[in-house]
Amino acid sequence: MTRSQAHTIVATYLGWSLDAFDFFLITFVLIAISKTFGVALVVVTLSITLTLSMRFVGSLFFGPIGDKYGRKITMVISLVFLAFFDTLVAFSPTITVFLILRALYGFGMGGEWGSGFALAMESLPAKARGWVSGLIQGGYPTGYLLAAIVYLFIYPRYGWRPMFYFAALPAIAVIYIMLTTKESPVYNEFKKNASFKQTFRTIGKHWKLFVYLSILLVGMNFVSHSTQDLYPTFLEHQLHFSPTYVASIAIAYNAAAIIGGIISGIISQNTRLGRRWSAISFLIVGIAISPIWAFPEIFGRSSLIYMAFLAPVIMQFIVQGAWAMPGVYMNERSPAEARATIPGVAYMVGVMVASTASTIEVLVSSMFHDNYSYSMLLLVLIVFPLTAIMWFLGKESKNAKLDVAPA
User: Fold this and answer.
1) Domains by residue range for the chain, with CATH
2) Which cellular compartments is it found in (predicted)?
3) Is residue 388's pLDDT more than 80?
4) Which residues of 87-97 are buried (b: 16+ CB within 10 A; e: fewer)?
5) Which of 19, 181, 242, 253 could join 313 in a cystine, given CB atoms 3.0 to 4.6 angstroms apart?
6) DSSP state of 26
7) Is the separation of the CB atoms in 114 and 63 below 8 Å?
8) Residue 214 and residue 394: Cα distance in Å, rounded?
C-alpha cells in the first residue's frame, strides 16, 4: 500500500468518525434537552428523525456533485457544512431552532459517506477493501465513543450545551484531507466526461440495483439505530445508572464495535463467506443474544450491573460486524459513473426510513408502562431476520473490478 493510499484510509476514517461524533452527541442528553425546553421526550427524539431524514436530501444533493466534480472536494464541503450547523446547536434559544439546526446538520451529513467511501474503495487494491471497509465503517462507533467521552467529562459539570462546542471537530478532518489526500484514480479516469446527465442516466440503467440496495440499507439502518439510539436513555431512565456508568458502558461497546467491524472485514475478504454470508452470520448471532441485551437483569438483579455492561458490548460487536459489509458491497456493485450517488443515496434512503426507530421504541414502550426492553427486543426480532433475508437475495460482490465500464 502506498503512502497516498494510507492517507486516504485515514482521511475517510477520520471524516466518518467526526461526522458520527456530531450525530451521537444528542443521544446522551435527550432527557436533559427535553427538560431545558420543557417538552416531552418524544419531541426531542424527533430531532433524530429530522437529522436522519435530511441525510437523504443531502445525499441527493451531494451524490451527483461527487460524481461530477470529484469525491474529495464533495467530502470536504459536506464536512464544513455539517460542522457549522451542529456547532450552532449549542446556542439554540428554542426547541424549534434546535430542531431546524439539527435538520441542517443532517443535510450536510448526507454528503460525507457516499463521497468518502467511493474515494477509499476506488483508491485501494482489491485485497484491502474488506478490512478497510470494516475500519472506515468503524468510524461510526468511533464517533459514538468520542461522544461518550465528551459526555463523561463535560455534561456532569457543564450541562449539554457545551458538548456541542466540540461539534466543530470535523474541521480537523477537512484540514487533513486537503493537505494529504489525492482524488480517486477511477474518478480521474472518467472526469472529462462526467456530468449530471451521465450520472442520472447510469442510475436509470441500474434502477433495479438501486432499489435492492435501498431496501437492504433500510434493514441495515434499522439494525443499527434500533440497538444504538435509545440505549443510553434506556440505561439512564430504566436501569437508573449514573451518567458516568452510562458513558463507560457506551465507550466499551463502541470499542468492541470497532473491533467487530475490522474482524468482519477480514473474514469477508479471506474466507469463503464473502460479503453476504459474513453479514448474515453476524445478524444470526445478534438474534440469538438479543434477549440478554434487552433484559440484562435476566439472570437476576445481582448480575444486572455486569450484564448491562457485557450484553451491549457483545451486541455492538455483532452489529458493527454486519455493518462492515454495506460500504464495500455497494461500491463493488455500483458503476463508477454513479458510485458517489447510488451507494450514498441508497444508504440515506435506509437512514430516512430507519430514522423512526427511536421514536417507535419510545411509543411502543408506552404500551408496556415505559419499559424499553420490550420495544427494543421486538424491533430487533423483526428487523434482524428480514435484513438477513435481503442479504441472502443479493449477489456476491467480493473483489469486483471498480474501474470505468467500456463506453
Assistant:
1) 3-163+196-393 (1.20.1250.20)
2) Membrane
3) yes
4) bbbbebeebee
5) 253
6) G
7) yes
8) 12
